[in-house]
Amino acid sequence: MTDFIEPVAYDAVQRFDLRDRVALVTGGAHGLGLAIVTAFLGAGAKVGVLDLDGEALEARMPEMAARGKVVARAVDTRDDDAVRAAIDDIARELGGIDILVNDAATFPSAPLAETDSKTLTAALDVNVVGYLRTVTAALPYLRASGRGRIINFGSVTFFLGHPDGLGAYIATKGAVTGLTRALAREVGVDGITANILAPGAFPTRAEYGLYEDQAAFDRQVIEVQSVKRRGDVSDIASAALFLASDAASFITGQTLLVDGGWTFN
Questions:
Q1: pLDDT of 213-229, one tens digit each?
Q2: pLDDT at position 215
Q3: Which positions are catalytic?
Q4: How far apart are CA 61 and CA 56, in angstroms?
Q5: Which of 134, 154, 175, 185 could connect to 198 by a Cys-Cys bridge, CB 3.0–4.6 Å?
Q6: Which CATH architecture describes the domain 18-258?
Q7: Half-sphere exposure of 140 toward its Cβ, with a 13 Å CA cutoff?
Q8: Could you tell me the residue ranges of all domains in the chain?
Q9: How high is the pLDDT of residue 231?
Q10: 188 has a pLDDT exceeding 90
């Protein structure tokens, strides 16, 4: 018999608090990126947004600014100098960076046998190298934070190898896995975690542009999932809130699949 006192965790809920954090989200003008931006604002974080679509950012700003402190910049993540300048600007205005979410992506559509090297290289430049650009630019701020979080977007498609015609995109998401795992090893000593958020099928603008018969696709997705409903963007945003918080401070190098049990099935 010892005098060991069993630890308890009554206050663990406090670790989910994101008030006073600064988050930077790429691809935040549309879809899942926009959902994450708005979720972070709702959680009390200050948010910087990067997106190529400046018009969409401008249109969204009044609504987002009414909910919290937000700074948006129209930036092409293929441009090293523009990315670094925008991130430095956001960090100055918001007081650092604690959380980086890389969601910006491109979706070339063609069979791999018909995909030339330029197309694949262009996809890699946005979907992989673009992530590294934002990481390297944000890293000094994430280190200064002492509790930095890197969340890179993966995809259920990497695990499934389909849908057909998105082979180049799927290949880039495989590269994101290697990039994130290597980052996790390198930056863990600085108290920074690096994880992958891999969504299944969500009804966003990008999805609705891919399928002519959306109702049939909805039925197909529900059939292969364990959870028999379509995912809502709040499902992926909630997962991002978790990975960004202190509640996930002991989780790194991992892939969190938010797919309703699609890959499980």
A1: 888 888 999 999 999 99
A2: 86
A3: 169
A4: 9
A5: 154
A6: 3-Layer(aba) Sandwich (3.40)
A7: 7
A8: 18-258
A9: 92
A10: yes
Q: What's the CA gap between 220 and 208, in Å, rounded?
A: 14
pLDDT digits (tens, 9 = 90+) for 145-167: 999 999 999 999 999 998 888 99
Q: Which of 145, 150, 156 is nearest to 252 (CA)?
A: 150
User: ∠ at Cα 59 (142, 29), nearest 5°?
Assistant: 40
Q: Which residues contact 227 (CB under 8 A, 6 or more apart)?
A: 260, 261
- Pick the more confident residue, 181 or 218: 181
- Ramachandran angles phi, psi of 98, nearest 5°: -105, -30
